[in-house]
Amino acid sequence: MTRSEFHAQLLALDLSQRPDEEPHRRKMIDLLESVPDCFQRSAFPAHFTGSALVVSSDGSRALLHHHRKLDRWLQFGGHCDGDEDVLRVAQKEALEESGIEGLIVASARPFDLDIHAIPPFNDEPAHFHYDVRYVFIAPENAASTLSGESHELRWFTAAEMKELPLDPGLERLRGKWQRLVERRHAAAHAG
Q1: Is the pTM of this model over 0.85?
Q2: Three-class SS state of 123
Q3: What is the sign, positive or negative, of the torsion defined by CA atoms of 20, 131, 119, 42?
């Protein structure tokens, strides 16, 4: 996906059922239009990142990692490092951080848009990640592998995730995934 295709995708994204993400979309579009290097981690005070919620093949559990540097449970994701295809970035990060081969893209459209603050670290000043989030489905019986970025990997149900101290963006992502699972469950039992 090119920068212009990403711009068009953000503009076309239906957020009528996701009004809390509209301010994030507006800021993302502004960043795209005003900062030429917005896909580089050196772009301050904000740059794009790509994230992935990895769910089990039956959709009942999500795999999170306990991030070594931030010391909290998170979905997989990271910096674009110049790649304008944020979906590809999310897919690459999910593979690197989970070790799961053969992840399936649930939808090429972003599942969630989030902007969150990153505290200063080493020589980087405080800044914002403009995070574009997707859902990936793990193959049946997928085996994960711990990377150097994590203390632990663990599968959680949506209810188990609700008990974790999640940041507001991940809690919103969890809630959207739970509602999706509930709708699919209800549709399966209605037919």
Answers
A1: yes
A2: coil
A3: negative
